[in-house]
Amino acid sequence: MKPILQVALDEVELARAVNIAREAVAGGADWLEAGTPLIKSEGMSAVRTLKNEFRDHVIVADMKTMDTGAIEVEMAIKSGAGVVSILGACDDSTVEESVRSARKYGARLMVDLINVPDPVARAVRLQELGADIIGVHVGIDQQMVGKDPLDILKGVRKAVTIQIAVAGGLDADSAAGAVALGADIVIVGGNIIRARDVTASAKRVRESIDSAGKHYIVREKKSIDEETREIFMQVSTPNISDAMHRAPAMRDVKPLYEGIKLVGKAVTVQNFPGDWSKPVEASDVAQKGEVIVIYNGSNYVAPWGELASRGCQQKGIAGVVIDGAIRDVDDIKRIKFPAFASASVPNANDPKGFGEINAEITCGGLRVRPGDWIIGDDNGVMVVPAERAYEVARRALEVKKSEDRVRTEIERGKTLAQVMDLYKWEKK
Ligand SMILES: O=C(CO)[C@H](O)[C@H](O)COP(=O)(O)O
User: Which of 140, 166, 185 to mutate to test the pocket of ligand 1 (most atoms within 8 A of CB)?
Assistant: First the structure.
């Protein structure tokens, strides 16, 4: 049996969802899911509209029901859903009521294991209760902190015989992995619906799952730091700011030249104006890929210049960020060493040995601790606390994906206000 490709329409605008669904169907989507955000925003009319537009496709209503199973399942089925999804975390009585309703009105019941403490035991129980499909699902917020549905799938597959659907940040590669591990249905949201070319992206997933048994190779997982760096290299500082609830960048700290992309963990320096020992000694402390971040305390005397930059470049240090002045701007530009500063002056003064390396500092108005992630580009410099780096990177990537989709719609002739339906979402 060919695996089923279910595309989750996690949109808030019905018209956009329908357009995306059309493109996804052209790429090979089998089932279309009215995602929870769409249902919350548009209600059952989302399910009704999808059914009317796509008569030959199964419409899945991702109700995420936690209580009153009978009513919610009934209303979804009567609106056109062929599959209704409820939460496995609910009470058994809610599952039983949902099963009764699904049987009565002729649809299948999917039960979603999102956030269930013991997914294997719960899956066994849900099968006993009459669920038709088990949903192995790692939610979007959980994905952002590194959880992976494929880690749960193996155990659940061994424990139940009913169909299994898998969801949670799947792309062409991991969707194939899910099929290779025994999934019958793969649910893909973001990686299809937010792609610049939805049809091409759905097609990639389609081909990948259809040949999963033959070609799938389990890839080694990268370290969190490696993955974090790779993602930060792909996103912009505006993406990161948006991902951090519009957090500010370093104030007045600007790139020395256009086109810099700086990513790395911070080695910090608290300096005193008119001294340059500690900033330059930090080049001996910093490792390959790290960023030296200096609070200099003055825009009128530079603790850093071309020679320090050359030494760092030789060692593979990613760059320097200075709240304060820099010098030798022309030479630093010529050797293309990534540098950000708030001013440039010719004078440096003397090395004296005051200050401290790897203390907590404030740079451009932001707190920076050793090991925090620093990301700089043409827009400015963002600081991401070490303990949230992976999560912020993943969220920034989601922001980028959403923007890619919005860009496509603008290129087709709409304004940003129209694409986002800004008027509807103004605060009332
Ligand atoms: O139900 C959901 C979130 O709760 C999503 O629809 C599901 O996770 C699929 O989307 P994605 O592929 O973006 O994770």
Answer: 140
